[in-house]
Amino acid sequence: MFRLIRAIDAFSLWSGKFCAWLIVPMVAGLTYEVVARYFFDAPTEWAYDMTFMLYGSHFMLGLAYTLAKKGHIRTDSFYGKWSVKTQGRVDTVCYVLFFFPGLIVFMVLTWKFFLISFGQGERYVGSPWMPIIYPFKFVMPLATAMLLLQGMSELLKSFYAAVKGEWL
Hints:
The chain has one domain (2-164).
């Protein structure tokens, strides 16, 4: 169990650090757009689309990393006063009843959303250069799968805390 938890956590931390580099092309694209628009009066057709797709990907692919780093919102006014066993029990119940069912439904829906987009070769018609968007729609089920995987690690840690009274 410990090896599985460590492997999942390591993957989530590695993927989060790797995906953080998406910020570089996003900032480069925005910088290029600002310079082209305001210094040369030559706005681009692609910069806005590229930046919102990269930022959305950056945001979604960082979810598992954020969960591994305990960065998601929690109401600590009660939680922090509970014993470790109680925290573990509450976390275990919440993961089983709320986290996994919601994400499994989201995974199924976003996978279908991606498959339809891929099958149609969907392009973003709201843009003059009409970029393909199914690779960015694939980010949704991918990020959900990564979050489910990290959620499994968190569930195992919570169960351990509920039984042993200490966090891994």
